[in-house]
Amino acid sequence: MAVFQRGEVWWYEFRYLGARIRETSHSPIKSVALRIERERHRQLELGTHGLTKATQPKTFGVVAKAYLLEREAHWQKKTREIHANSLKHLEPHFGKLLLNEIRSEHVSKYQRSRIREGASGRTVNIETNLLRLVLRKAKLWSNLADDVKPLKENSNVGRELSDDEVHRLLLACKASVSRALYPAVLTSIHTGLRSIELRLLRWHQIDFIEGTITVGKSKTEGGEGRLVYLSALAVETLKHWRAQFPAVEPSHAVFPRESYALKGKKGTFGGIVVPYRTFHDQPIRSFQTAWRTAKKAAGVECRWHDLRHSCASRLAAGGATDQTLQALLGWMNPKMIERYSHVRAEAKRKAVSVFDVASSETDSPQNSPQFATSRNMNIM
């Protein structure tokens, strides 16, 4: 058993039945901390022998899983998925810590780690929100609340890629080691499919005769099961991609996971990277490595989500109605449509500009025929 000081408060630490007990005494006096430590140990011993009910120490990982199970019936499917994904990221950092061991320094370290991994501020805030919920239920969040600050979230929803950027990007994707990258990027630009919708796509969801895709798992309920129409180029690209797999079945992934290797003589240079094994039943886990390489080669700085944004902007510029945008892109929130209203306004303004041709003064609606007649009479 031992006590130690952290700041102005004394903590105690000891092991009991294989578990490490590490708690704060909430006291700035060492002698008081020692008494609290002995009392805590006594309570555990009494509980072990059935003399009183002891509170067994539990780690964050155990408590968090129990919390998700407890709240499962009260959450929507999407909420359950979000929190389950958050726990996957939180567990390696907090899973083995007792709840009362978690401090603001741990949270700050976690935030920095996730940002270095490429996660956005919003993603990290969503993940740490689960940590907050679990600690709040245990009446421990108030100890950290003042020192834990949420990360700044990017309010920029994305940007539209120019035609030149799209051209350069597609050329770089064609030259990519990952042969799936080009058909995936082109399909994304032409359909506006979300990353998860594209990655989990199966061949039975594509109707080449009608030129449509029936979306499967999506971010929103409105996104699942919607019918997305394909451009002629997207149809031809996907047909060509399908031809790469002679034994393909309807249940196979459109973009399967593949293993790559260097083809060439051992110990020599000049070989080429080729896929040597394809896992048809398993969707590709991520395009990120090949995607980053292609962006660098093309000299284009963007996110994958910007492909969807570019699709939406082009559809809006082409005169697509609000209902059409909502149906094709699977939006549930009307505010999403408002983000592209300026594009449609520009398209409408351009359409009516055909009437803005040079005309004589007598053709102006501000000059009535009577005005023209009276003016001519004066001249005469």
Question: How would you sum up this structure, described in words?
Answer:
With 380 residues, this protein is α+β, with helices and mostly antiparallel strands. It has 3 domains: 2-48; 60-143, DNA polymerase, domain 1 (Orthogonal Bundle), CATH 1.10.150; 163-339, Intergrase catalytic core (hpI Integrase, Chain A). 47% of the residues lie in helices and 13% in strands. It is built from 15 helices and 8 strands. It has helices at residues 30-48, 60-71, 77-94, 104-116, 121-137, 163-174, 181-191, 195-199, 232-242, 288-298, 305-317, 322-329, 334-338, 341-352, 369-379; strands at 2-6, 9-16, 19-27, 206-207, 212-214, 227-229, 256-263, 272-283. The chain is elongated, with a radius of gyration of 31 Å. The model is unreliable at 358-380 (pLDDT under 50).
List strands and helices in order, with pairings:
Layout: E1 2-6, E2 9-16, E3 19-27, H1 30-48, H2 60-71, H3 77-94, H4 104-116, H5 121-137, H6 163-174, H7 181-191, H8 195-199, E4 206-207, E5 212-214, E6 227-229, H9 232-242, E7 256-263, E8 272-283, H10 288-298, H11 305-317, H12 322-329, H13 334-338, H14 341-352, H15 369-379
Antiparallel strand pairs: 1-2, 2-3, 4-5, 5-6, 7-8
